């Protein structure tokens, strides 16, 4: 427990310092604890510290983890990994938010599979802000068009955009890429779309993300340590 408490405090201290440097408020930032590939047991100490939102990359792993943690009330699960269309129905049932929607077809599958007796499934559009071929996501030029289409679908609530910057220590380059996502948000708002959420920034680049307007940081290694490779 002490290990996770120290990590938790260190992460929030870093967020506080980053927010102060750019004149923002801590309340504008939410923390998504990325528990992918870690065992369910790592969720419990963070839950005890007040963390409720956890991010997973794989649909099956998330379902197994949810079952193992069924005794913890108010957990919220977010999918942050690429979603295959054949797993969209299960994802629509077990997640509260899907951040990796990159096509209308995928959004339509999620919409059709979301039960009408549950709250709308929150979705973000993943934008390929690094323009790397191996990365998922739509190009920034198409992001607002897709947002307008998805916002019309039933049983979904489109909330904003998600992006992953290229792995680089160049803070200027990090900020340039995150600025593309912020521009998508501005364009969406100009078109009358809410675009509340900008999910950008991880353990290595959260300072640049906060400076460019991130509202959600996806933090894994800084909370849990090196990710298991097995």
Looking at this protein, list some descriptive labels:
230 residues, alpha/beta, eight-stranded parallel sheet, 9 helices, 41% helix, globular
Q: What structural class should be given to the helix and strand makeup?
A: alpha/beta
Could you give a short account of the major beta sheet? 8 strands, parallel
Strand content: 15-25%
Name the helicity range: 40-55%
Q: Low-confidence spans: pLDDT under 50, at least 5 residues?
A: none
* Straight-line distance between termini: 23 Å
> What order do the helices and strands follow?
HEHEHEHEHEHEHEHEH
Q: What is the molecular shape?
A: globular
Radius of gyration: 17 Å
As an assembly, this protein is single chain
Output the number of helix runs.
9
The overall strand count is: 8
**Order of the strands making up the biggest sheet:** 7-6-5-4-3-2-1-8
The average pLDDT score comes to 96
Question: Can you describe this structure?
Answer:
It is a single chain. The chain starts with a helix and ends in a 6-residue tail after the last helix. With 230 residues, it is an alpha/beta fold. The protein has helices at residues 2-21, 43-48, 59-68, 88-94, 104-113, 140-150, 171-190, 206-211, 221-224, and strands at residues 30-34, 53-56, 76-79, 97-101, 121-127, 156-163, 197-199, 216-219.
């Amino acid at each position: 427990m002490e290990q996770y408490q120290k990590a938790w405090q260190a992460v929030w201290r870093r967020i506080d310092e980053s927010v102060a440097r750019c004149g923002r408020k801590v309340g504008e930032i939410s923390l998504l604890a990325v528990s992918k590939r870690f065992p369910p047991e790592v969720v419990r100490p963070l839950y005890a510290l007040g963390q409720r939102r956890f991010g997973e990359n794989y649909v099956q792993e998330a379902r197994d983890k949810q079952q193992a943690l069924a005794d913890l009330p108010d957990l919220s699960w977010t999918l942050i990994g690429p979603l295959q269309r054949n797993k969209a129905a299960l994802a629509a049932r077990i997640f509260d938010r899907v951040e990796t929607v990159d096509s209308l077809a995928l959004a339509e599958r999620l919409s059709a599979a979301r039960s009408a007796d549950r709250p709308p499934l929150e979705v973000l559009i993943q934008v390929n802000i690094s323009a790397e071929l191996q990365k998922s996501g739509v190009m920034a030029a198409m992001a607002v068009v897709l947002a307008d289409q998805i916002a019309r679908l039933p049983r979904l609530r489109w909330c904003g955009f998600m992006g992953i910057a290229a792995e680089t220590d160049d803070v200027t380059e990090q900020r340039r890429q995150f600025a593309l996502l912020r521009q998508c948000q501005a364009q969406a708002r100009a078109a009358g779309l809410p675009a509340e959420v900008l999910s950008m920034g991880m353990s290595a680049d959260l300072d640049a993300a906060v400076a460019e307007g991130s509202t959600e940081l996806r933090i894994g290694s800084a909370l849990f340590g090196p990710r298991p490779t097995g």
